[in-house]
Amino acid sequence: MEDVVAARLAELSASWNKAKGEVFRQAISHIRMPLCISDPTQTDNPIVFANDAFCDLTGYSMEEVIGRNCRFLQGPGTTRDSIERLREVLTGEELATVEIVNYRKDGSEFVNALQLGPISDPDGNLVFYFGSQLDVSSQRRKEKEAAALRSRELLHRLRNIVNVMAVVIKMTSRDYPGSEALRDVITGRLLALGKAHFDTIGEDGSRESLALAQIAETILHAYAPMAETQFVLNGPVMVLPESRVTPLTLILHELATNAVKYGALSAPQGHVDLSWHLDCGVLNLVWQENGGPAVTVPKREGGSGIIRTIVGAVGGTIVFDWKADGLRVDVQMSVGEQA
Question: Is there a single domain that holds both residue 252 and residue 185?
């Protein structure tokens, strides 16, 4: 009798668990938020479930989705950084949100705020990953438009300030006969420095990618008192991704400023050699000063501290070598493979 009761209870329990599973399946099938589930126990972690909202968002049918790895949604605008972050989350079995550019079946792109995480069985073994998608393209576009407007207003004001300063210098020089040459040099240097900042920092938040040589030449030409006779650029043609334009621009600005104040560019015979090469998607940049005053290790971090912060913020590394005959700075940061 006890065996019969136990068998019946087991049957009822199995039936109830099956019913609960069906209820759960129907619930996530009809939920309005796009959702998919993948199976890491299978080769290439394929999608084993996707709801109707996922298909509506991506434009793919259920048959076109099931059995494929989620990377089929990636495309030309998907950044290496976002892909690396996804790998970290999956490897670490984290619960996290990663913004990534994905593509619909019709080729249109959208910014996907992808929340993903692991699903474990009662014994703690990883059995599935879930991913919920949220299209934040409109929100990000509005943020970029607002940032671009603020940038344009700021740069307009800065240009006005530079122009006013140039006029003040010219007007002041009238009271000092014989100062025309100095006036022209100072005014020219002021306008050149302004142009270096405006050209390299950009006017909006959606800048086109820029060549490293273009940025370096603009900055050094402005800062070097004797222009191109005080610097040499040596490296392959390299177009920087948008995410690296501002960090490298700021780094070169700080190095050039330091060189003018204390280093090679403060002496007529001083010069800067800037070289770079790409190794497996990693930029190796070397700033070498020669011919300036004897170098001493600074007692406190000023510009070097700013540079360390900038490099660290993009996951790079930097080494300062305060040699007596000239500062050397080695910078490494990921920039992706060149097309």
Answer: no
Per residue in 299-322, pLDDT (tens digit) is: 777 778 888 888 888 899 999 999
Co-location of 330 and 222 in the same domain: yes
Rounded Cα distance, 316 and 243, in Å: 13
Mark whether 325 and 219 lie in a shared domain: yes
339 and 320 in one domain? yes
The model scores a pTM over 0.85: no
| C-alpha–C-alpha distance, residues 303 and 322, integer Å | 14
Tens digit of pLDDT for each residue in 216-234?
Answer: 998 888 888 888 889 999 9
Q: Please list the residues that pair with 278 across neighbouring strands.
A: 283
180-201 vs 242-261: helix crossing angle, rounded to 10: 150
* SS3 assignment, position 321: strand
From CA 44, how far away is CA 35, in angstroms rounded? 19
**Final residue of a structural domain among 150, 184, 207:** 207
103 bridge partner residues: 109
